[in-house]
């Protein structure tokens, strides 16, 4: 049985970083194959980075490197997060195409590949994660590795027209075709990628996920990522969850809770969501004083200008909506720009009547799945989900909305608040079954089966 070798920007070398679903899934695969995990240490150093640090834990070898200031800026902050992230989320208007950032992106992909190749042995399989390392397959091949390489993209893959806006799209597409198995979150993303190869690279779609392109035969499939469904359901009835629910219950004073939980990112559609909530108070006066919207929005990438602008925009909108509709004893909308413990989040999901998951684009969106698993079967809340989240392909039994259409979102929130118990239960049971059956282990196994890695 061969080893699995994972490569991702951040690893779970620090045990406290093993809490998230993805980290757990990769970690479990590695412990069962005695594998290795390569990535960034999280440290930024002045001058040249020293040799990579080796950490061994439960049979898994982590090899992590520091970034120089130039690498952190050019590779991470600029090309990955100010070029690929906006373009792949259909925000070409927000992309900053600098002169030198792609060079930094290439160099880091090559440096990490060069760090990995000497450790690879015959029989190993490599699993690369996410948009930071789109060129990794190419550099691993150039370094002499001809064994299997899988790649999973956690964010959307844009339509061919949008992808072509990326000045380096040809080089990136060619490099991506050095992977053997390419995993996407949804059929829509997979089909965008395949269409690009067919229309622009003379690729041939052979069906069943197989594509012939650039003299190679590769596979591209949808592997929708899941969560640790059963254990999340347990968190939601734990003590920490109950305490959080009691705390927000004091604030609500018997009113219904409409909840949002998102990293503060422009892809998550927060301003549009705030406006839709404002519209609801406007168009459905019976909700005034009876409903409160709370958005949990931990800041992310706060060094990047577009994220600072978003913060200002949210402050203004929240101020205006509360000014217009609020009363002496009622705050209609509030957002908390801080992070809560996962157990506390589970408690908040459980007492929410409605969860608004309305990104403008999202690879999958795990919040939607967490909300489903946290519900009380006797009185489940209602999920409102954007048609542009990857999760909408699996969770089609919920209320699906166009997040740009504030009027319709407002109407849908009202409909969700008024939905009879029987309908809520029927819909929730279907969603629950999907989230449980297609959980994080299912996702991992489905991907690794196609890469032909035995992790049992
Ligand atoms: C990328 C893709 C894809 C949020 N606030 C707090 C907190 N969270 C947790 C949620 C959830 C996670 O963060 C967010 O996951 P998402 O899937 O919603 O979004 P991204 O971070 O953008 O992730 C996405 C994902 O990768 C996996 O492939 O689904 O499309 O963009 O788990 O619960 N966690 C804690 N405190 C918070 O305040 N502890």
What does this structure look like?
By secondary structure, the protein is an alpha/beta fold. It has 2 domains: 4-226 and 440-452, Rossmann fold (3-Layer(aba) Sandwich); 229-438, Rossmann fold. Helices cover 44% and strands 19% of the residues. The chain is built from 16 helices and 16 strands. The chain has helices spanning 21-33, 69-88, 101-116, 136-142, 160-163, 169-176, 187-200, 229-235, 239-252, 270-283, 305-325, 342-351, 366-374, 406-418, 421-437, 440-451; strands at residues 4-10, 36-45, 53-57, 60-68, 125-129, 149-152, 181-184, 204-207, 210-213, 216-222, 256-261, 291-296, 333-336, 354-357, 382-386, 399-401. A 10-stranded mixed β-sheet has the order 3-4-2-1-5-6-7-10-9-8, with helices on both faces. Strands 13-12-11-14-15-16 form a 6-stranded parallel β-sheet, sandwiched between helices. Strand 14 (354-357), helix 13 and strand 15 form a beta-alpha-beta unit. Helix 2 (69-88) packs across helix 3, helix 9 crosses helix 12 (342-351) and helix 10 (270-283) crosses helix 14. The model has no long low-confidence stretch (mean pLDDT 94). Bound molecules: GDP-alpha-D-glucose. GDP-alpha-D-glucose binds next to helix 12 and helix 13.
